[in-house]
Amino acid sequence: MKLADMKEGDRARIVHVNGEEAVKRHLGALGFVAGTVVRVVRTSYGNMILAVHESRIAVNDATAADIEVDEV
Amino acid sequence: MANSIKIALAGNPNCGKTTLFNAITGSEQYVGNWPGVTVEKKDGVLRGHKEVVVQDLPGIYSLSPYSTEEKVTRRFLVDENPDAILNIVDGTNIERNLYLSTQLAELGLPMVMAVNMMDVVKKNGDKIDFAKISKALRCEVVGISALKKEGDMEAAEMAVALAKGGERGTGNGERGGGLRKLPDVPHVFSGSVEHAIAHIEESIQGKVPMRSIRWYAIKIFERDREIIRDLGLGVGDMKHIEEHIRDCEKELDDDAESIITNQRYDFIKKLMDKSLALNEKHKNKATLSDRIDKIVTHRFLALPIFILSLCAMWWLAVAENGPGTVLTDWANDEFLADGWHLPFTTHEVDGKDFDAAQEDFAKAEATVKAWEAGEKKASIEDEETGEVSDEWDIDEAAYKAAKEVEEPDPSKYGVWVPGIGALVSAGLEKVGVGETVKSLVVDGAWGGVATVLGFVPVIFIVFLFLAFLEDCGYMARVAFIMDRLLRKFGLSGKSFIPMLIGKGCGVPAVMAARTIENERARRMTVILATFVPCGAKTVIIAMFAALFFREQWYVAALMDVVGIAIIILGGIALKKTRFFAGEAASFVLELPAYHMPTFSGVWHHTWNRLKGYIIKAGLIIFPACVFLWFVMHFDWSLTLLGDEEIEKSILHDLGSWIAWFFSPLGFGSWQGAAASVSAEIAKEQATATLGLVAANMGGATTGANIQAFFASVSAFPKLAALSFMVFNLFVPPCMVAIAVTFREMGSKKWGWFAIAFQLFVGYVLALNAYQLGILFAGGGFGLWTAVALLVDVWCAWMVLRPDRKGGSK
């Protein structure tokens, strides 16, 4: 399942992050690594605001589609 | 300060680093840029410790080379050898923050971790076990609250103590004669990874400083290209290392970089399980920020809220009778010019206030001048727009009465503060300098300074407002809201902020583009942001609207629309060239929690930017104005020319040489060329210079002279004027903005690309305005009409052609 398919309020555990090296590296630093649970705070025309650890991270739809998750 | 102690302040963005920096450094702070790159660098002297310099590094998430900030920071930490690191950590988001801390610890420098926001942590009922973290990361850990100034100095002083007693770098591979113990660094990875790292350490021994060898080894394990290149590791060295890395990748079924990232987080997670006790009550609860975001980033409400806040900013900065305009008028017409009355001290004399008395005097002066010139009508023109604002009949009686009117003495009408311009003139008179020197100082040098300072009020208000929006956390949401839309034009949500600033001034606009990590989107933003007509360009628009387009009320607003259209169409066209083709930039941005900005925070932010503008503008505009004054007032034999002799000036000849370039645009004369080129000094110079070079056109007023000038160069003066205005609005911005563009583009080649693109756009727009205008006005079809149409077809093709497949790499 992709993070992009989640709805507002859903919680999901990250399985794998795909995509461009540099972006993956940045996402990793922000806590998007396998095993982390994220919560979808808001969706807006495909873009998302996510709760990761105690921070809120905004990502665009393409980036959200690159993150594989399991729903929790 | 050769033997001073350097403490590097490092941490995530929005963790309170700047608050801490301001609190622990005294008044001695200096902001500079890193050599070669445009990332802000701040140094300050630690309070009560003259020998200690605190260096505020940019906020970063990791020591991997993702953004410019990260590259610069790690370069600094590795090459500049600070004596200790003060790592500031957000206690309310400690897990994420420790990701950077583990990397900093691996550098092997003495380190103190200051866990910030302890007041909030305590209020939430959470508990953090510092001793366990300290043991795991092999560094000192203290709790502080930077905002409440609790524990901040203690943390800094602890870092100083560590630096003084700590292990100093002893160069490549030296173990300090074996006397000193190597600093301990944390080991956070699993067995096989540690094994590979140990092998890498072995093979790079002697090539890197011993204390940081582990950090280097991990970077090499991650195949960090920059580090591998810097160490000069050849194919032979890497072959052996690669084997170990590949073994790990095979065993753990992941790429090396992800292995490191994942295991770092695993390590932190295990550490947090032992040392962090979260209060269950507030866990996963929607915060106040989340609730604000529910409204601010709402599907339908987001845009109206954003537009409303924009309107507030424009009202503050540029609206008629808004604070920005009032301040600008005061600065230009009073503070920098003749002088001003202290508010609340003014009173009337003979039933008239000072303004009315001055107006009477101006009318009387005009009457006298007109009568003595043998005219039957006198008139007054508006200084800025050059149009006649008042006209009346005169006779001998009126002349005699006018002769009697005395210039009002401002000091009689209230407490009069002389303006700087007046003081300069008076000072020169007192010293008794010659006319040449006086003209140089007043018209040349002072004119240049006044041009720079005259824009300070508007820019100050825009900066202040933006600093507020940034500090409270809303700016990040703006980027989020606008991302969907701007993506369609090859830009990113973060591109919007530079364009917003661009309405005020292009210089900070271009500088603001540096927050965009994606190189393509950043370059496009720099190229396009200055097409938004800035504060100085509105001066041009105002003048031409008044002189030529009285009936076309929409011309002024149309220029903003044209600017936006260029950004959209230009973005689409550029995205389809091989320079900018490729996948749309991804958008990943942390949205900091909303909070009320502190006064000192907003002030620091605003002042740092404003200071930067004044210095840069001063360094470029000032000498340029002196040069312009020189070529306008002298001929080639270097004799000073009189007011009416501008046709003999050097400027006349310089303008004549390049006039051909402007011929297809309808103003191909030395005056048009000189005005357009001088507009590159500062855009509003276009109108000022035009007024001066058209002085001998025989009109009664400056406005009439300018109208006469356009009538003399073209059979379609209105179209030539439109073309002149459009050209000066949409060609490359002023010199200061160009200089900043070159810097931000990162290379001369890209700088020239930006300028060429902007020149092309401005020229083509002016060409169209003039040539197609003539065609529609029934002026016939000529060679240049054909050229204009052909160029249009080509531009349309550039915008409409299908997307390129793949990127430019």
**What class do helices, strands and sheet pairing of chain A give?**
alpha+beta
Give the strand line-up of the largest sheet of chain A.
4-3-2-1-5
Integer average pLDDT of chain A: 91
Q: Count of DSSP helices of chain A?
A: 2
Low-confidence parts of chain A, pLDDT < 50 over ≥5 residues? none
| Gap between N and C termini of chain A | 12 Å
For the residues shown, what is the average pLDDT of chain B? 84
Q: Do you know the CATH topology of chain A?
A: SH3 type barrels
Strand order of the largest sheet of chain B: 2-3-4-1-5-6-8
User: How much strand content do the residues of chain B show?
Assistant: 5-15%
Q: List SSEs of chain A in N-to-C order.
A: EHEEEHE
What is the first-to-last residue Cα distance of chain B?
46 Å
Number of domains of chain A: 1
Largest sheet of chain B: 7 strands, mixed
Helix content of chain B: 55-70%
CATH superfamily of chain A: Ferrous iron transport protein A (FeoA)
Any idea what the radius of gyration of chain B is?
A: 32 Å
Tell me what the CATH architecture of chain A is: Roll
Q: So what's the CATH class of chain A?
A: Mainly Beta
Count of helical regions of chain B: 34
Structural class based on helices, strands and sheet pairing of chain B: alpha/beta
